[in-house]
Fold:
Amino acid sequence: MQTLDLIVDAWADGAVAERDRWRERRRVAEGAMAERSRLRGVATPRRTPEEADFADQLRALWDVCGNPATEAVARHCEVSARTLDSYLDGRTFPTPERFDQILIGLASVIGADEADESVVHEAQRTERLREVLFRARAARKEERARVRELATALPGGQSEPARDAPPSFNGFGQVPGVLPGRRFADRRALVRSGVHRQLMAGIAGSEKLGAESVVLGGEHFGDEDHGDVITYTGEGAATGDQQLTRGNAALATSASARTPVRVVRRITDASGVQAYRYDGLYTVEDYWSEQGSNGWRVWRFHLVRMAPAEQGVANLAQLDEAEGPGLVGDMRSPLSVQRVVRSTAVANLVKQIHDFRCQVCGVRLQLRAGRAYAEAAHIRSLGSPHGGVDAIGNLLCLCPNCHVLMDAGMLVINDDLTVVSRADSAVLGVLRETPEHRIDRQALAYHRILHGMPEEGRGIDA
Structure:
């Protein structure tokens, strides 16, 4: 529109009437093009009466201010001249914040005289404009909704609607209408269904909210898939240490937040045809770093399948059998995850030795009736693959906050028992140790290595 104005000004010697006539002809042409597109089956938004009303009132304010050049106003506000032209022509409309910027620009252009500035900031006029702007934005939102609805009805308006995943699906947990055992021909079918919303990456999700889903393809050395229990290797370059970022960080967040993760397996039938099968929800029970076979450090994640009742199905094994035989690598083991039995007596003993006071920060959580609360935290986790023992030297008495930080590797304890925060490398103090409770230094070293700290015969430098 700005280019058209320049051409008309040069041709008609700046005649305002001629410029307005050509602007009107352009609006008519754009309307005719939109109508032709609608008849061809392409949904296009139309200009609402509320938007036209706002453009007319903004133009009236502009005229009251002496019809200043948009370039001059743009120099005094954070809105470009081209954008101002689009507002005045009714092609777009501003946000409330940009409207305030326009008022500032107009007041600056028409002069420092308070009488002139009052023309711009006159309360009744500006409040009326803000109300009209609000109605225009609401009408535009309704118009966009109309266009989206029309796009699904008109031929050519939407070539491939997402039939399997409803718009309300937020990405976590079961996808409505998709039960465990369902097969998909390729990764595109997984994306369309909402089961795994990544065409290439094996982990879908975000560092902030957690992992939505993972795809097991058997491409990572060190992966262990026992059906109900999985050791999954994180993502990262093959020529360097894996980092706890992106998909790896998403899985770590799932471990902390206890959010369910959908697991998809790549399968192959007897004829060699590959497909993907959704195998239900898992929880990330643990994660750690270790040295891989190529010498680089990798991140491993321990996933355990949730019980059928927690997934909203009657029997996962029956769903697998319903899919039929002949699949290479089918996982039909019964849901019988072995849980490590912890000694309550040993945990209580450690807490009593320290009078339920955290060994790191010294906090003692006092409850009613003289009771106190603390948590017994294992330095080296029990069971596979860590192999920790349920002994007093492998336990710490911690408050809930320090327990979470310890499990996440954000607290590092050196052999001299200095406690370092990995968030800012600050020394938090010295871990309290008593004659009755001696800390296992080998367990501390394992914890440091597990969470990616270099081990050269000692812990992290304080």
Summary: The domain at 183-328 is CATH 2.30.280.10 (PUA domain-like). The chain has three domains: 41-153, 183-328, 344-450. The first strand starts at residue 183 and ends at 184.
